[in-house]
Amino acid sequence: MTRGTTGQGGTAVVGERPGGPMVRVEDLHRSYGSGASAVHALRGVSFEVPRGELVALKGRSGSGKTTLLNLLGGLDRPDAGTVTVDGTDIVGLGEEGLLALRRDRIGFIFQSFGLIPILSAAENVGVPMRLRKTDPREREERVALLLSLVGLGDHAGQRPGELSGGQQQRVAIARALANRPALLIADEPTGQLDADTGLAVMELLRAVVRSEGVTVLVATHDSQLLGFADRVLELGDGQLVDHGPRPTGT
User: Fold this and answer.
1) How many structural domains are present in the chain?
2) Residue ranges making up the domain that contains 230
3) Domain for residue 33, yes or no?
4) pLDDT, tens digit, for every residue of 73-84?
5) Contact 61, 117 (CB under 8 A)
6) Has residue 211 got a pLDDT over 90?
7) What's the pLDDT at 243?
8) pLDDT the model gives residue 43
9) Angstrom distance (rounded) from CA 25 to CA 233
10) Average pLDDT score over residue span 14-31
11) Buried-exposed string 208-241: b where 16+ CB fall within 10 A, e elsewhere
12) Where is the region Disordered (predicted)?
């Protein structure tokens, strides 16, 4: 198969690399409510995301972006269809399995940063490793490495309230990478940032793909940020309407 083609069963193939895709979604459906008032957030969405790429998810408000990311991250369950992440069918997992998946193999970045106010930058980054009971020395080394990676090596002791919005999001990115996830899910990570800071955060995510070997799926409404992606998925009214390469000239 080649990039931008359609495979068996109508699945859009967003590139292909050895070892199988990082994400495979097949005929995914999710509705909220019932009867005439039901909202069909996703209607038969199918695609694949290869390993080691940054894929952007675009679409207007209400197109289904957040619903899709929640399903990929095991935060919600579909009404029908399958979701495979790093070779694991996550729809069939129980709560314990989903918890382990989110802890060990998926990192999350949110628009609201989600940092713990009373903890320093270093302590925030270390939280996932504490939950995983990582050896303290290994944890400290990993925290220092990640803060250096995101350009905040000199801000380890500062609390979120002492950092700018862009710096807080960089801490959030470092925290998301703490347990060496295979997949990084970012829902509008630049939504609270000014244009220049948003571009810097996307440049950082691009660098993370290269340095950490992680696959990144990022939802954004900002067309200026699409040029950082290897591939763009576009949702419209709960359906995948485009799965081509990133736009030229962005």
Assistant:
1) 1
2) 52-75+96-242
3) no
4) 999 999 999 999
5) no
6) no
7) 60
8) 93
9) 13
10) 78
11) bbeebebbbbbbbebeebbbbbbbbbbbeebbbe
12) 1-20
